[in-house]
Amino acid sequence: MEKDALTDVAIEPLILPGSLEGPDAADFLDVVRIGNEAWRRASGTDLHDDDPAEMLVRWRETPYRVSHVVVARLDGRIVGAGRVEIDKTTRESAEIDVVLVEEHEEGPVAEALMAAVEALAHENGRTVLQAWTIHRPDPVERRLVPPTGAGWIPEDDPTTRLMRGAGFRLGQVERNSVFELNGSYEAVDRLLEQAVAAAGADYRPVWWAGPTPPEYADGYAAAIARMYTDVPVGDMVNEEASWDAGRVFERDERFAESGTLIGVTLVIHEPTGAVAAFNELTIGADRSRPTAQWGTLVMPEHRGHRLGAIVKCIGLKRWHERVPESPRVSTFNAEENRYMLDVNEAVGFVPASYAGAWEKKLA
């Protein structure tokens, strides 16, 4: 059947199952599988596979976040899914995600799913939609460059065409880099020694894996909140979200439920007790999978003391000791964030793929 003849697409809400083992879990598992397959096709790697147990917990509503998920059915079969994730402590923005089976990456099914996701965001009072696409690092002739001028993504990728056709604008390009946890740590050790010497006695590193120690919860929460305002976001809306110790502890509970482990490195500024820098590494219940690096930030008022190298190096070393089964770490950094890319390259991270950050403002 020709793509332009597909008009009987049904868009339906996804009902989250009570567990992964129940008879009502099939649709949810289909959606996770379709998403993983889509990102594998686009990136050429399995670095970004989602774990169903993690997604089930993440997509449940909490006091801080809510996800609305819809599926596209064709002849009774799920061929795509769309998600709108809303941080309840913000007012304008929503993160969206659309994934499809290969034969419907473009055409009426994709367009119907994008329209449904946009309508969902609008119904929930959101006027700024933000989304991320993943792309292989292979050289191409036709490139789409963001307003920052840093980096590019392929102009002819199906996901690029889908986003542009839906009225989204590329705002930034991020580099996805990988560090092999079972390789040499000579560069890590050398960089850490130099960074600790440069930072001096005013800065004290702290590391833990698992639940957040109560004595660090307030400072850690304040540092996470700074991720919304103090990292490069290119030509995109940067809306502040609220974090406090209660939100950190609620996230810890969800991690425990899904089997997710998080490792956190802080640098404490001793004269004030404030968190000056932090780094997060996470992995799902299958500890043999790649590790994902989440936030890494040095507070602007503490930059220039090589704290980024400290949290990065300590995090990698301690994580490998704690989770020796995980083969590698995957991280994303803005292409214009040359300081953090310099740290990554000095440590031994190498590019694996690139991500496009997209935005659409609704009327």
TrEMBL record:
Q: Which domain of life is it from?
A: Bacteria
Q: Which PROSITE patterns match?
A: GNAT
User: Which CDD domains does the record match to this protein?
Assistant: NAT_SF
State whether keyword tRNA processing applies. no
Q: Mention any Pfam family matching this sequence.
A: Acetyltransf_1
Please tell me whether the keyword Transmembrane is annotated for this protein. Answer: no
Q: Which UniProt keywords apply?
A: Transferase
Q: Which GO terms describe its molecular function?
A: acyltransferase activity, transferring groups other than amino-acyl groups
Q: Ranges for the N-acetyltransferase domain?
A: 9-192
Q: What's the name of the protein?
A: N-acetyltransferase
